[in-house]
UniProtKB/TrEMBL annotation:
Transmembrane segments: none
Name of protein: ABC transporter ATP-binding protein
Native organism taxonomy: Bacteria, Bacillati, Actinomycetota, Actinomycetes, Micromonosporales
The UniProt record lists the keyword Transmembrane: no
Keywords: ATP-binding, Nucleotide-binding, Transport
UniProt keyword Glycosyltransferase, yes or no: no
GO molecular function per UniProt: ATP binding
Occurrences of domain ABC transporter (ranges): 4-235
Species the sequence originates in: Micromonospora maritima
Amino acid sequence: MTTVALKDVTKVFQDGTIAVDTINLDVNDGEFMVLLGPSGCGKSTVLRMVAGLEDPTSGAVMLGGEVANDLPPRDRKIAMVFQDFALYPHMTVGDNIGFPLRLSGVEPGPRGERIQDVAGALGIGDVLARKPSQLSGGQRQRVAMGRAIVRRPGLFLMDEPLSNLDSGLRAELRAEISGLTRELGVTTIYVTHDQAEALTMADRVAIMRKGVLQDVGTPTQVYGRPATLYVAAFLGSPRMNLLEASVYVHLDRYVALNLGEQALYLPWDDIRSRAVAHYHGERIVVGMRAEALTPVAPDTPGDVLHGRIRYLEHHGHESLAFLDIGATAIVVDEMGTPVERAAPGQRSLRRFGQVMQRLTGRAGES
Ligand code: ATP
C-alpha cells in the first residue's frame, strides 16, 4: 500500500529560488494524481522530493504514512519515467527492461519470464532483441515504461513522459499509461504542463503556479468549480470568459450584474442569483465558458449579452465566435448554429446557458 502525503513542503534552492512553497497534498493508494502547471512552477521539484532526489527545505514527505525525508531513493520502492526515456543504447530491449531485475539479483529464468510478461502487456514482445536505436519513439517510451514496472513498484513517478512524441502517439500512449497503471493498481504521480493530458488521465489533478498549489480535485471539479481565477483561466480552451461586474440585488425580484455598458438580469429563483446575492454592492468576476453561452433572438429579455462579432474561427467540430460586448471581448461556442447567421460584423446576442456560470472571486483577485 503506497500513499503519498506532502505536509507543508517547501523547497528553496541555494540561490534563493523558492521552487515549492508550503505544499500540502495527499495522494491515495492506487490513485493517478497529475501535477499540472506551466513551465517552472515547481512540478518536477515536487516529484524529485517524493523520489528522494531532492531534500525538502522544510516540511515532511510521507510514504505509506511514514516520514520519508531521510529515506534513500533506492529504499522508496519507486519507479521513475522521464521524457528522455534514458534507455541504455548498447543493450537490447529485453536487457533494458530486465536491468532492474538483474541489479537486484533475479535469476535469468524468472527474469526472462517477467520480461516477456511486461513486454507482452506493453505490446513490444516482438522487439525484445532490438537495440533502442532500432525503435520508434513510441516503442522506446514503452520500453522505458516496461523497465519502470518490471519490479512492481509501489509508486510510479512520471515527469512529462510523452512530451517528446508526436500528438497522435501521445494520445494513444496516454490512454495506455493510465490503463496500465490502473490495471496494476500502482499509485502514480504524473507531471505535465499539458491540460488535455491532465484532464484525460487523472483521477485528481493538482494545479500549481509559482510553487504554490492552487487547486486539487477531479478533472470535473477543477474544470467546473475552479478554486481560483488563475485555475479558471488556465484550464480549458478557449479560455474561460472572465468579466468584471457589480452586483445589485433587487430583493425578491432579480439580481443585476452590471457589466459597464450593459447589464444581465438574473431571475430571483435562478440558482445563479443565489450564488451571487451576498456580493450585493461589490465588484466581482463572473466566469463563463464558451460552451455555456448560446445564441438567442435579439429581443430576448433577461440574462442576455449583446455583442458584435469580430471574427469567427472554425475548428471542424465546432466554430468559435469572438465578440466585443462593450469594452470586453468574449468568445462563444457556435456549435449547432448556422454559420451564415453569425457573419463577422453582424450584431448578435448571446444568452447565458445553464451549464456553467460561477463567480470565481472578487474583481482583482487571482
Ligand atoms: P518544467 O515544466 O519546465 O520542467 P517545473 O514546473 O517542473 O518546470 P521545476 O523544474 O520544478 O519546474 O523548477 C521550479 C523552479 O525552480 C524554477 O524556477 C527553476 O528554475 C528552479 N530550479 C529548479 N532546479 C533548480 C536548482 N537546482 N537550482 C536553482 N533553481 C532551480
